[in-house]
Write a structure and sequence with these properties.
Elements (H helix, E strand, L loop, with lengths): L12 H11 L3 H17 L3 H28 L20 H7 L3 H4 L4 E5 L5 H14 L4 E5 H10 L6 H9 L3 E7 L6 H14 L4 E6 L3 H4 L6 H12 L3 E5 L19
Parallel strand pairs: 1-4, 1-5, 2-3, 3-4
Helix pairs in contact: 1-2, 2-3, 7-8, 7-9, 9-11
């Protein structure tokens, strides 16, 4: 009786090398290794040049994947180009300052940006442009409406997920809180807000947009002490951008009241 036997499958040195590279999680290098080897043979590349080409391709691919993940997780939508922003109608807003902020050194230094002005002046637009630049620079970003964030934190108490919910807003290197102060804060929500801002103070950056100035913020909180403590942490070494001029969403014959911002 003849015994059935099977020979072990044979692999080529290239296949073995690709397997080793995948084990190191160098996926781009593994996929492109045959092409790299062929190019090296055709051009008689030095070992260092060959290795440099391999790892540069891997680094570029990893950065691209990280940027894609950052953009997806950021919740940023409707991003516009800074070059299309009309600074001529925003007399107190300097293009030079915004371009510097887009370099994202403020994120590295864990400083905040406060965008203050009446509705319709481009605060959210500028905040998104800066946040988008941070994503492209490799930083983790999250864009939220302040009211929705506070509702989420408050609801997390019911199911015992408070720590996990708070972590969602403390973990990103840059948190964008849009429409801060559009509604008076619930006393319970104020507690979460203060905890969040305290946790991020000098640990992570915040970009905040608000249609009210500092002196009016005390009316949003249940106590002046809570307002002062929150403002103190937000403005510490922050960049304050004041938006003035004609609003994008206003009739041309409506001027409105000036923002109380002192």
């Amino acid at each position: 009786m003849t015994k059935n036997s099977s020979r072990p499958s044979q692999t080529t040195p290239l296949q073995d090398l690709q397997t080793l590279v995948r084990d190191l999680d160098l996926t781009t290098l593994a996929e492109n290794l045959p092409g790299f080897l062929e190019k090296a043979e055709q051009n008689n590349l030095a070992y260092t040049d060959f290795a440099m080409g391999l790892f540069q391709a891997e680094v570029v691919a990893r950065r691209a994947r990280r940027t894609e993940r950052n953009l997806k997780r950021s919740k940023l939508t409707s991003i516009e180009d800074l070059e299309t922003f009309n600074f001529a109608v925003r007399p107190k807003l300097e293009a030079r300052i915004i371009k510097e902020l887009c370099n994202c050194q403020f994120v590295e230094e864990r400083r905040n940006i406060l965008c203050l002005g009446r509705p319709g002046l481009g605060k959210t637009r500028i905040a998104k442009i800066i946040a988008h630049s941070a994503c492209l620079a490799g930083y983790s970003v999250l864009f939220v409406k302040t009211a929705s964030m506070l509702e989420d934190l408050h609801a997390s108490l019911a199911d015992g997920s408070g720590s996990r919910a708070m972590s969602r807003y403390t973990k990103p290197q840059l948190l964008v809180c849009d429409e801060f102060g559009y509604e008076t804060f619930d006393p319970k929500a104020t507690k979460y807000l203060f905890r969040l801002i305290s946790a991020r103070h000098k640990q992570g950056s915040i970009i905040l947009t608000s249609n009210t100035g500092f002196t009016r913020w005390k009316t949003l909180f249940p106590s002046e002490a809570a307002a002062v403590a929150t403002v103190d942490r937000l403005v510490d070494q922050a960049t304050i951008l004041r938006f003035t001029g004609q609003g994008y969403r206003q009739p041309k014959d409506f001027h409105g009241e000036s923002l109380e911002d002192d």
